[in-house]
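Thread: Modeling a multi-component assembly for a lab meeting

Hi all, long-time lurker, first post. My supervisor asked me to bring a structural picture of a complex we are working on to next week's group meeting, and I have zero experience with this. I have the sequence lines for every component (541 residues in total). Could someone generate the structure of the whole assembly? Inputs are pasted exactly as I received them:
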Amino acid sequence: MILLDRVTKTYPRSEGSAALDRITLNVDPKEFVIVVGQSGAGKTTLLRLLTREERPTSGKIIIGGIDYDKLKDKEIPLLRRKIGVVFQDFKLLPNKTVFENVAFALEIVGVSNKEIRHTVPKVLDIVNLRGKEDSMPRQLSGGERQRVAIARAIVRQPRILVADEPTGNLDPKHAWDVIKVLEKINRYGTTVLLTTHNQEIVNKLKRRVITLKDGKVASDRANSGYKS
Amino acid sequence: MNRRLITLSRIFQTGAVNFVRNISLAIAAMAVMVVTLTIVLFSLITNATFKNTVTQITNKIDVSVFLKDTVTPAQTTVLLSQLKGLPNVKAVQYLNKTQVLQQYEQQNASNKQLATAIGQTSNPLPSTILIKTYDLNKIQSIKAFLVQPANAALQSNAPSYSGDQETAINKITHATDILREVGIVAIIVFVIICALIIFNTIQMAIFNRRDEIQIMRLLGASTNYIRGPFVVESTIYGILSAAISVAIIDAAFVTASNALQASALGLLDISYANSFFKSHFFELLAIQILLGIVLGAVSSIIATHRYLKFKTK
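Re: Modeling a multi-component assembly
Sure thing. I ran the full set together rather than chain by chain. Output:
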């Protein structure tokens, strides 16, 4: 489902040191993979490459059969519609309500209004945001914003879900609720790639854990734990 | 509903909703657009008024040809038809001696001494041909025709150019030509300045919302789906600003005609400007709205472009 072959990403201002250094990864369909590592290890860069926010300096990326080298600019939106992304900084649309933020993910793929009215409340139920439909993002707490971002990422039932520190702003109870949502959609067949700092979550999940260190894969173990 | 229609209706709806939700930004952008569009409208009306003034001046200028009393009606007819055939001649009018005298008496009705003097003599005034031209600059062809020996022999005096000096006419034509050119240049300059100001205003409004564009991009929205609502929003700015600018000028005319009670301020004939504005109201409104829409739409298309680019490195 996700294949990275000797992927390197160097930023022009990084004076030669690579954010990612010859990373090779293979994630199977329906797999739940946790990427851990300290700040600056390359987790966010990895996710930005997967969403084609960045292009690798070298190496090959193939996701869901799409070879990024052959991807034309006008095909990038189509690729992004196949991947659900939960951004670390939420990236909610500030001028849209909670309902509209989630609905936006469906609108851009041409889903009818009737279907949107049917689907969005269900997803807001999953993330415990019923009653907040008409709130603007600025009126929400950090945790609520995070849950809107998750609702938006899963509403299209993507084949791949990429979540960048989705529990970073949440208290332990809500953090675990979010993880349960991710596990749930993984059970429905979505491949999940989760980056986190949260040692407790990693240890409880007992999933495949990839540890990044200085832009390299330090370890890649199934049913593993993590000690930061 | 067809998927494209759904998308199109969403673009319009989102644009309208965004306009309302970003009303403070919209008011700021529209304030600038109103000022610039008002200047353009003002320059359009001013130019039309100057043109009218120039036409009025040139219409008052005739070439007068004075005929000897010995010229026969047949000769007059030939001369008139020849004059009509000249390229720059707009109209030719023949006044016989009696008509010239009547006109003279009318013009000098207040001068009783002169009226008495004329009454005591036989009519000394020659029959006259009045020539109106299309273009005062091209009067040379008429002059050349009139000084031909055969034609000069029919004339009692040298032709008069509006009864004034030729140099005065030349000065007027020169001044009116400059006014025409200045008017056209002024309109072009104002439209360019207006376009640049509106472009910068919309660019700043969109710059404030660049994060929104980038988020929509990351979520997989197509270029048109992101850009569309911005174009709709800017178009609304354009339409409303155009309507407001026309309303401002309308209010200005109402105030000016009440306050000044004057028909003319130098070359700017306010009563003509007012009647021009009233008679061309819908044309001017259409021009303003079209200008507002085009400038708004084009500016937003250009301004969103830079935030819609994908990283190539």
